[in-house]
């Protein structure tokens, strides 16, 4: 499959990829355009997850790229970021599914698990044999998860007993395992557990009536005396600092996804402008429409440049929490502007699913909030700038 850069990649960042990475990106693009785009509006409207697409979706290797135990070829963080962008420019819900499966659930096992746990779980999750979820956020603990977790873990011989609740947990209505983060009652430190979702005392209930990422099956989880063997504790998760190592990686991925959402809305607006006529000519020929589109492209290009660099820093080993935080906060803010301008350029038709911008406009609100709000990411960056924490 020949490589064709996106027109919306205005500065040609995709040309930084190796030929093998370009081929893989084109296969993913072909799948998203040919299989996901034709059906995703219907799933979005019904708030249903496309379970029938999971097998073919994972066959693109999209959940295999990041880990030595599963990757089909050596690849860069820039490639993996562009893959997240590619998914989101068609549909942010499918990208979120992979973000939870590969980024958060598999990422937790990769970063905090033992080698035995990595060998056991990562290949099975990459293939789709095992679907994962990630349980950190709670009904009363979101931005303050570092110190505010109320879910507890109590050692009982060779097992742990978990009690508490989680909220907004993606994939959780159909996951086979969920990574649960809980506070050890003996030392007060946060630890991670691989929880089999068929364990007695574990329940997950879908959150209804969302206006964003509607196909994503977010759930409320309740844990009532859930018994987890010591062997299922993430062996290298000893405090919230270890949890933060996972979030450092996934925040950068959300930044990439937000660029994809912005591109999706922008591309819909460009296509519409070339077809829609007002005052005797295509609206693409109107100055104010061109101004809106140019502003959209400026936001997209600046955000892509930031994402490329933070991914390069990951491969160099120099990426810190503050670098991921700046990328997530900046890119999601610019995404929010961009989808609004794209929708605005389409007038009333911009709020109708048939023209696609409406879906990106709504989904942007979820990406803007999850994986750390703009304000929390600003405080992470502010701490790096000043050397002073100002979280409370």
From TrEMBL:
List residues of the Acyl-CoA oxidase/dehydrogenase middle domain: 133-226
- CC cofactor: FAD
Q: Any keyword Heme?
A: no
**Gene3D superfamilies assigned:** Acyl-CoA dehydrogenase/oxidase, N-terminal domain, Butyryl-CoA Dehydrogenase, subunit A, domain 2, Butyryl-CoA Dehydrogenase, subunit A, domain 3
Domain Acyl-CoA dehydrogenase/oxidase C-terminal, by residue range, is: 243-385
- Pfam families per record: Acyl-CoA_dh_1, Acyl-CoA_dh_M, Acyl-CoA_dh_N
Q: Which InterPro entries match?
A: ACX4-like, Acyl-CoA_DH_CS, Acyl-CoA_Oxase/DH_mid-dom, Acyl-CoA_Oxase/DH_mid-dom_sf, AcylCo_DH-like_C, AcylCo_DH/oxidase_C, AcylCoA_DH/ox_N, AcylCoA_DH/ox_N_sf
Select a single GO molecular function from the record's annotations and give it: acyl-CoA dehydrogenase activity
Indicate whether Protease appears among the record's keywords: no
Q: Where is the Acyl-CoA dehydrogenase/oxidase N-terminal domain?
A: 18-129
What keywords sit in the KW lines?
Answer: FAD, Flavoprotein, Oxidoreductase
Top-level division of the source organism's lineage: Bacteria
Q: Which GO terms describe its biological process?
A: fatty acid beta-oxidation
What's this protein's family per the entry?
A: Belongs to the acyl-CoA dehydrogenase family.
Put simply, this protein is called: Acyl-CoA dehydrogenase
Organism, by scientific name, is Mycetocola manganoxydans
């Amino acid at each position: 499959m020949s490589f064709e850069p996106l027109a919306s990649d205005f500065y040609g960042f995709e040309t930084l990829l190796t030929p093998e990475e370009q081929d893989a990106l084109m296969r993913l693009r072909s799948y998203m355009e040919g299989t996901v785009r034709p059906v995703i509006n219907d799933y979005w409207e019904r708030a249903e997850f496309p379970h029938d697409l999971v097998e073919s979706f994972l066959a693109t290797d999209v959940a295999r790229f990041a880990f030595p135990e599963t990757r089909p070829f050596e690849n860069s963080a820039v490639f993996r970021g562009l893959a997240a962008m590619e998914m989101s420019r068609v549909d942010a819900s499918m990208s979120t599914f992979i973000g939870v499966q590969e980024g958060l659930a598999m990422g937790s096992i990769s970063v905090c698990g033992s080698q035995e746990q990595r060998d056991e779980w990562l290949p099975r999750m990459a293939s789709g044999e095992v679907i994962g979820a990630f349980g950190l956020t709670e009904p009363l603990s979101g931005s303050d998860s570092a110190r505010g977790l109320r879910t507890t873990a109590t050692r009982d011989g060779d097992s742990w007993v978990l009690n508490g609740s989680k909220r907004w947990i993606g994939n959780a209505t159909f996951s086979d395992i969920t990574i649960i983060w809980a506070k050890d009652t003996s030392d007060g430190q946060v630890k991670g557990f691989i929880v089999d979702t068929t364990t007695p005392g574990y329940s997950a209930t879908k959150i209804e009536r969302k206006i964003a990422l509607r196909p994503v099956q977010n759930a409320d989880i309740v844990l009532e005396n859930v018994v987890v063997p010591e062997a299922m504790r993430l062996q290298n998760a000893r405090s919230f600092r270890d949890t933060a190592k996972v979030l450092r990686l996934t925040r950068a991925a959300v930044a990439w996804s937000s660029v994809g959402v912005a591109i999706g809305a922008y591309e819909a607006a460009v296509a519409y402008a070339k077809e829609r006529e007002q005052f005797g000519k295509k609206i693409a020929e109107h100055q104010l429409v061109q101004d809106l589109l140019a502003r959209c492209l400026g936001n997209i290009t600046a955000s892509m440049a930031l994402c490329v660099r933070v991914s390069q820093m990951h491969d160099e080993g120099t990426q810190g929490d503050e670098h991921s935080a700046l990328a997530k906060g900046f890119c999601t803010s610019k995404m929010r502007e961009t989808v609004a301008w794209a929708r605005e350029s389409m007038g009333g038709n911009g709020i109708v699913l048939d023209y696609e911008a409406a879906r990106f406009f709504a989904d942007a609100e979820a990406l803007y909030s999850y994986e750390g709000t703009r304000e929390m990411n600003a405080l992470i960056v502010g701490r790096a700038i000043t050397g002073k924490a100002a979280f409370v």
